[in-house]
Structures are given as C-alpha cells and as structure tokens.
Amino acid sequence: MTERRLVNDGPVPEIGEVSAHATRCGYRLVRDSTPTDRWLLLDLDDDECLYSALTLDGIEQYLNE
C-alpha cells in the first residue's frame, strides 16, 4: 500500500489555500510519497483517488474547472 501524507496546513500558504479549496469541493488533498510526489485529490467519503497532478497549480486548475 502506498503511504499518503495528509496536507491540511503547511509552511507555504498556497498549500493551505489549495487544501481548503479542495475541501470545499468535496476532496481531500494529500501528497503521495512515491518518487514522483504527486498531489492527489481523494474523495472525502471513501478516499478514492479522483485526480492527481505533479503541481499544486495543476490541482488548482482542476478545482477551478
């Protein structure tokens, strides 16, 4: 099983902002700990991965669609 790190807050304000945006849209933002360190949007109810991106900008773009 892949280890995932929950991101609710962070030293970089952007992480907190994107995480809050994801929560408002029904997702949970996590950082995958694989070598690519992709950002993942998980369903709040069942933790199913619904979208992933290499950057927070990619996550933000998806959330804004």
TrEMBL record:
It comes from the Bacteria. This is Uncharacterized protein.
